[in-house]
Amino acid sequence: MQVKSLEESSARYARNSLKAYLEGRKNLNWVASIIGTGATARQMLSALSGYGNPERYKELSDWFDSHH
To answer: SS3 for 1?
Structure first.
């Protein structure tokens, strides 16, 4: 069994959390509490620009912009 590093596991959790929000399964407050406002989270969001609901992507992108 291969053990993932904490960094890899955290990145996967953050990415899956972003996907859950973009798919409409979670709300903005929930995803914001998971991913925070760091540059890495912003890069993950940018990588998912074509994923899920475009309106939710814009809402989260605007949230990032207002917290920097």
So the answer is: coil
pLDDT at 68 exceeding the cut of 80:
no
pLDDT for the residue 3: 79
What are the start-end ranges of the H helices in 1-68?
6-22, 28-35, 39-47, 54-66
Domain regions of the chain by residue span: 8-66
Dihedrals phi, psi of 26, to nearest 5 degrees: -135, 160
For 1, 6, 26, 29, 45, the CA distances from 59, given in Å and listed in that order, are 39, 29, 13, 12, 11
- The pTM for the full model equals 0.88
